[in-house]
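Any chance you'd type out a single protein's sequence alongside its tokenized fold?
>
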Amino acid sequence: MTQARWRQFTEWPLLGVAVIFLVAYSIEVIGDVSDRRAGALDALIWVTWFLFAIDYLVMLVLAENRGRWFVRNLHELAILALPVLRPLRLIRLVLVLTILHRFAGSTLRGRVLTYVLGSAVLLTYVGAIAVLDAEENAPGSNIKNVGDALWWAAVTITTVGYGDHYPVTAIGRLVAVGLMVGGIAVLGVVTASVASWLIEQVRTTTAKEIEQADADLEERITELTALLNERFPSSPLNSGNSAAVRTTVDS
């Protein structure tokens, strides 16, 4: 089995695992759950983490060049191996965008709806939950509830940055950096999509104008041929062939 085959086989199951993880993680961070329920949520989160770890190991085994794949995916190993980076496991949720890409198509509308709206909503929510997990109990933190976290994530991903809320922990700041980079990427997709659409529209309009000009020229040549045939019956151009007139006009 190849990596591509494994990825195709596990894409939808991992998407389901990612969604389950997001729900459990959100309830644990946002909700005021009892110790018993918190233990159950922790167990569920660790099960999803274990499934992601299996996926990582299988991908490593199936890699054609394991050393190169290992080096290029050190961030995956860090997210799996370091408990302190637990909020960063949420980046697994980019699988949602991979699935949505299948339905996006190649049109501007599809790309914008998928990569702009989908990415913005997902990144904003994930960033908010991750920073809230890191900040809500930290000394001196000003992000204490989900409302503060969502507001902070929204102004961060749009690169507005009012500064009324900001992370004070190392993990919170690391989440902020990721959200800033994600916001720049989303804006880049918007710019690229709009530029591509404009170029496509200009190309289409130009092609239509050239086609219309050719049609008008052909019509004028046909009219000129008929006029010459009427006035100069013995003319060499009296052949009824508009191509001869076109050649004469061009010369």
Summary: The chain has nine helices and no strands. Residues 203-250 form one domain. The chain has a mean pLDDT of 77.
